[in-house]
TrEMBL record:
CDD domains cross-referenced by the UniProt entry: EGF (cd00053), STKc_IRAK (cd14066)
Topological type in the membrane: Single-pass type I membrane protein
Tree of life domain: Eukaryota
Residue ranges constituting the EGF-like domain according to the UniProt record: 253-294
Entry similarity comment: Belongs to the protein kinase superfamily. Ser/Thr protein kinase family.
Alphabetical list of InterPro entries matching this protein: Bulb-type_lectin_dom (IPR001480), Bulb-type_lectin_dom_sf (IPR036426), EGF (IPR000742), Kinase-like_dom_sf (IPR011009), Pan_app (IPR003609), Prot_kinase_dom (IPR000719), Protein_kinase_ATP_BS (IPR017441), S_locus_glycoprot_dom (IPR000858)
Classification via Pfam families: B_lectin (PF01453), PAN_2 (PF08276), Pkinase (PF00069), S_locus_glycop (PF00954)
Compartments where found: Membrane
Phylogenetic lineage: Eukaryota, Viridiplantae, Streptophyta, Embryophyta, Tracheophyta
GO molecular function: ATP binding; carbohydrate binding; protein serine/threonine kinase activity
Protein name: Receptor-like serine/threonine-protein kinase
Top-level EC class as recorded in UniProt: transferase
PROSITE patterns, per database record: BULB_LECTIN (PS50927), EGF_2 (PS01186), EGF_3 (PS50026), PAN (PS50948), PROTEIN_KINASE_ATP (PS00107), PROTEIN_KINASE_DOM (PS50011), PROTEIN_KINASE_ST (PS00108)
Length: 793
């Protein structure tokens, strides 16, 4: 075969064109292979090896610094930056006296001619008479059995077998076993199931069969690369061959500051825009050029004061820190003060109330609202710096509105009164001691309950929910005849108590646990009082029957007011059940105006924030959807079905999580099983509901109407409408578009887009969501929803 490229290329007119355009800027000749016949090959040759269809080139490249300094690499011909996908000696460049040669024995070697020193060599490993180095169309450099795909640098190309890769390196960052990103101190900051393959259409196939999908997934007309970037992030890029530019279509880490090792000791990483970061020193510390920050003035042991850094968290938590059991703030502070080597402490406001004492040096500090943490840094008493990290609500001062006051003693028997007085005294003592967290209260509560038991008393009396007998509820609901709804936990019946109050009785299915356990849990649910939560009045636990008694909310659920009738789930159910009661007889429902919709959104956000943050973090709702938002006569919203996940059989939890949410409202982490379910799953569902309140359509109805394509994804679509196309009116309910309260609508839409971020970490907390809706915090531009994980099919 002729080694001459010209001959070969002349068979492909388009490629010859390419060849000339390549020739002009680099003035380099192109060859299709390197063999004994055109050996040797060095930087002075100005020859490039080009793949058959021209996509990739290989050759000697000058390092960025000028002078006689080269490396050898493979790059993407059409990219404007001539991006290098594979290289050797990039970090230890050689001079122009170095060249490739193929020996008569068939060994390819890179040799320093002046010193006759072989820098690198591979043997042909075969008896081929004329071994040659070729560049394949997929970007793989091949010399008989050796190939560059097995020798990884910092980039993976489509169909490169990733499973063979053990390590990818860039500066202090490493991607190990295609599954963990690590920085200098072996600190991992991103973990995935091992990636096995990058496909041409933009999917990262994982070992367990799941896939990570690029934002331009499906397009096969573009070259892609997965690169470990100098900043430590792993990003997938697509090449626009018209402009020659790369575009990021997927990234492992969304918040760059969470990449470990970004800043030096004691420094804090702060994001600058969406793709850059900055390192700053905490107050009381000064820049110690190059090596981070040092304390300005020392404090004597067991003294000093603390400066509050809102949303700042340091380190790996396991490293040079002690996590103390949940405690109140004052205790957390004094523990740190008493330990002379404690330089700071962190306090988590997620409801966990974790107290973390930190020891020098502080590493991997970063600012992010997602931390829900404040760090208190110890400085000298005389320090005059003030903290620039502010903005977190003073949660310490937020006292839960209801919990600590008990209802007036009922006129029941003496035991009850004694019970109450014991409890009131215990609570008062606790109050004096300064209860800062309701978590602690709850802990105490169960202790008091146990104490009450050892005193020979029963559970908490009045003030807790009332216990109804089966017969009482049967009578109140006219033998369970009036179905008003049906949800994941059971059927809901309307009824009336003898005192005239209207009630909704939820008859629970599949509830595990004994009677006492049920009672205890229900007592806790019944203590969650909020204007925007449906109030629980009582329960029934007779033999196998488990029922909850709620206030009756007159106007029914939100879905009936915002969606056109045919999309109404509850009505379908009622029809199936052959039920002709209230729901179907109600008069046509009014269309909700903007102010009402806004009020509903805000009320719901506040109620969920209350569930998550103010009192009990573990009360995730898990099934937020319009059906679970009930409206009163004046359209005051009330969230229902909260706290019930606590009641379900613990054994069923695993399978439960699958059937738990409702399609269309479930956060991606419900589908990606390796991600934990946190309060942020509720935030996602709320975001979907918020978009529906604005649009008057189900999120999946939109999809059916638009039928754009399979890759259509509501959050991404909404983002594009608002921030790219700037056509927010396409989202807004067409029935009331004219009377739009633009400011409220914009706030609702933008907040919603923050809520439906794919990654739970990127979503704001529910408290923040409420504030965004209120307009008390600025709503910055959210990141574009970039990925979503496709369920296993
Ligand atoms: C490089 O230049 C040398 C000397 O001019 C020549 O023998 C060799 O064939 C050239 N190699 C390539 C790959 O162009
Ligand atoms: C090649 O050899 C010369 C002479 O010994 C030496 O000065 C030069 O540094 C060597 N280059 C490399 C890349 O080893
Ligand atoms: C270079 O070294 C090889 C063995 O290392 C030797 O066979 C060869 O003769 C040397 N060439 C020159 C020019 O010194
Ligand atoms: C290659 O050559 C070696 C000896 O040089 C011989 O033993 C071997 O059988 C040959 N292999 C093939 C595939 O021809
Ligand atoms: C060259 O081949 C690669 C791999 O087959 C393909 O992805 C690419 O689209 C081709 N490029 C051109 C310009 O045909
Ligand atoms: C891969 O490249 C490194 C240097 O860049 C070299 O040390 C190593 O031997 C290479 N491995 C293979 C399999 O070629
Ligand atoms: C990668 O995935 C594509 C598409 O599924 C497949 O054709 C290809 O063989 C895979 N490559 C590897 C190395 O697994
Ligand atoms: C590629 O770049 C061109 C020129 O900048 C632009 O017009 C085109 O929309 C881009 N294509 C894609 C798919 O982004
Ligand atoms: C960051 O993004 C801006 C615009 O979005 C872009 O111009 C800039 O090149 C990006 N910087 C990096 C380091 O990617
Ligand atoms: C310290 O100062 C240098 C140079 O001004 C700057 O590059 C670096 O980011 C600063 N570091 C911190 C932690 O402030
Ligand atoms: C805090 O901000 C003020 C004003 O922006 C600035 O002068 C001061 O240097 C900052 N302090 C720190 C510790 O960053
Ligand atoms: C932990 O702290 C000790 C001194 O208190 C220090 O010597 C050590 O390097 C620290 N460890 C890490 C991982 O930073």
């Amino acid at each position: 075969m002729s080694p001459s490229s010209l001959l070969l290329l002349s068979h492909f007119p388009i490629l010859s064109l390419l060849f000339f355009s390549l020739l002009s800027p680099d003035s380099a000749a192109a060859v299709s292979s390197f063999s004994v016949s055109n050996s040797p090959w060095g930087p002075t040759n100005s020859t490039n090896l080009v793949s058959k269809n021209g996509t990739f080139s290989a050759g000697f490249r000058k390092t960025s610094s000028n002078g006689d300094s080269y490396f050898f690499g493979v790059w993407v011909t059409d990219s404007s930056d001539k991006f290098v996908v594979w290289s050797i000696f990039r970090d230890t460049p050689f001079d122009s006296t170095t060249q490739f040669s193929i020996s008569s024995k068939g060994e390819l070697s890179l040799t320093n001619i002046s010193s006759n020193q072989t820098l690198w060599s591979v043997s042909a490993n075969s008896n081929s008479s004329s071994p040659q180095l070729v560049l394949n169309d997929n970007g793989e450099l091949q010399f008989n059995t050796w190939n560059s795909f097995n020798n990884l640098t910092d980039t993976i190309l489509p169909n490169q077998p990733i499973s063979k890769i053990s390590i990818m390196e860039k500066g202090q960052f490493r991607f190990v076993n295609a599954s963990v990103l690590l920085s200098g101190f072996n600190d991992s900051y991103y973990t995935t199931t091992a990636i096995v393959n990058l496909t041409n259409d933009g999917q990262l196939m994982l070992l367990d069969g799941t896939r990570l999908v690029a934002s331009d997934y499906g397009k096969t007309d573009r070259l892609r690369r997965l690169t470990l970037d100098p900043n430590g992030n792993l990003q997938l890029y697509s090449l626009n061959s018209t402009s020659g530019r790369w575009r990021v279509v997927w990234q492992a880490v969304q918040e760059l500051c969470t990449i470990r090792g970004t800043c030096g000791a004691n420094a804090i990483c702060v994001p600058v825009g969406s793709n850059s970061t900055q390192c700053v020193c905490p107050p009381g510390y000064k820049n110690n050029t190059g090596t981070g920050c040092t304390l300005k003035s020392k404090y004597p042991s067991s003294s000093g004061k603390f400066l509050q850094l809102d949303f700042v968290q340091f380190g790996n938590l396991s490293q040079n820190s002690t996590t103390l059991p949940p405690t109140n703030f004052a205790k957390c502070q004094s523990t740190c003060l008493q330990n002379s080597s404690c330089v700071a402490f962190s306090y988590k406001f997620t409801g966990q109330r974790d107290c973390i004492n930190l020891f020098a040096p502080l590493y991997d500090g970063y600012w992010s609202p997602a931390t829900e943490t404040a760090t208190y840094i110890r400085v000298s008493e005389s320090e005059t710096d003030t903290s620039n990290f502010t903005g977190m609500t003073q949660m310490i001062e937020t006292v839960c509105p209801v919990r600590l006051s008990l209802p007036p003693p009922p006129n029941e028997n003496k035991t009850t009164a004694r019970n109450i007085s014991i409890i009131v005294i215990l609570f008062s003592l606790e109050l004096l001691a300064g209860v800062l967290s309701f978590w602690a209260f709850l802990k105490k509560y169960s202790k008091y309950r146990d104490m009450a038991r050892t005193f020979g008393l029963e559970y908490l009396p009045a003030g807790g929910p009332r216990r109804f007998s089966y017969a009482e509820l049967k009578a109140a609901t006219s033998d369970f005849s009036n179905i008003v709804g049906k949800g994941g936990y059971g059927v809901v019946y309307k009824g009336q108590l003898p005192d005239g109050r209207a009630i909704a009785v939820k008859r629970l299915r599949n509830i595990g646990g004994g009677e006492a356990e049920f009672w205890a849990e229900v007592t806790i649910i019944a203590r969650m009082h909020h204007l925007n939560l449906v109030r629980m009045w009582g329960f029934c636990a007779d033999k196998d029957q488990r029922m909850l008694v709620y206030e009756y909310v007159s106007n029914g659920s939100l879905d009936k007011f915002i969606f056109p009738a045919h999309t109404n789930l509850n009505e379908n159910i009622n029809k199936e059940e052959g039920d002709t009661n209230t729901t179907l007889l109600q008069p046509p429902r009014p269309l909700l105006d903007w102010n009402t919709r806004y009020r509903i959104a805000l009320g719901v956000a506040r109620a969920i924030a209350y569930l998550h943050e103010e009192c009990l973090e573990w009360v995730l709702h898990c099934d937020i959807k319009p059906e679970n938002i009930l409206l009163e006569d004046d359209f005051c919203p009330k969230v229902s079905d909260f706290g019930l996940s606590k009641l379900t059989n613990k054994k069923d939890k695993v399978t439960m999580s699958k059937i738990r949410g409702t399609r269309g409202y479930m956060a991606p982490e419900w589908v990606i099983h390796r991600e934990p379910i946190t309060a942020k799953a509720d935030v996602y569902s709320f975001g979907m509901v918020l978009l529906e309140i604005v649009s008057g359509r189900r999120n999946y109805e939109f999809q059916r109407e638009l039928m754009e394509s399979d890759e259509w994804y509501f959050p991404k679509w909404a983002f594009d409408k608002v921030y790219i196309e700037k056509k927010m009116e396409d989202i807004v309910d067409p029935r009331i578009i004219d009377e739009a309260n633009d400011e409220a609508v914009e706030r609702m839409v933008k907040t919603a887009i923050w809520c439906v971020q794919d990654r739970a970490d990127s979503r704001p907390s529910m408290g923040k969501v409420a504030k965004m809706l209120e307009g008390t915090v600025e709503i910055t531009e959210p990141p574009k929803p970039a990925i979503f994980c496709m369920p296993d099919e």
